[in-house]
Design a protein that fits this description.
It is built from no helices and eleven strands. It has 149 residues and is an all-beta fold. The chain starts with a strand and ends in an 18-residue tail after the last strand.
Length: 149
């Protein structure tokens, strides 16, 4: 017998069950049962945004994907980058599921960059990625922020 329950951790467990078949003779036929739990990839991170831009770095932040109470827990986030002129994203970094921000350094002034973040768990990557709506670039040298009080 094989059971595939919902909302369980991805694993395979074997259980041995005894069933009292004959109360008089106390015979116990054995039945083997395998429980298979399958996981699905997590949802995409939410609300990816630029949290800071300097002349040397761009900082990103995001929120974890919404969960429906199942065990599609995120184990890692993958950050990808591409220059506006390029067609494909390239892997940039991998961070723990406890981290929802990343600062990208060693970028070139004057170039436009696009970023995306994907969630990952034991079943794989999120089907979709969180992406910025528009490209971003480093601040130009000599740019200052004026704060009025």
């Amino acid at each position: 017998m094989q059971i595939e329950p919902n909302n369980c951790r991805p694993t395979i467990a074997r259980f041995q069950c005894s069933v009292l078949a004959d109360a008089v003779n106390r015979r116990r036929p054995m039945m083997m049962m395998t429980v298979v739990c399958r996981s699905e990839p997590p949802g995409a991170p939410r609300n990816l945004q630029v949290t800071d831009i300097t002349t040397t770095a761009i900082s990103l932040g995001w929120e974890p994907p919404l969960t429906d109470g199942t065990t599609n827990d995120v184990t890692q986030y993958n950050i990808d980058l591409r220059e506006e002129r390029d067609a494909d994203y390239a892997p940039l970094a991998k961070v723990s599921n406890r981290i929802t921000s990343y600062t990208v350094e060693e970028l070139h002034r004057g170039r436009l960059y696009r970023f995306r973040v994907r969630s990952k768990n034991a079943a794989g990557y999120s089907e979709n990625a969180a992406e910025l709506d528009s490209p971003v670039q480093l601040k130009a040298l000599g740019t200052h922020t004026i704060v009025y009080m």
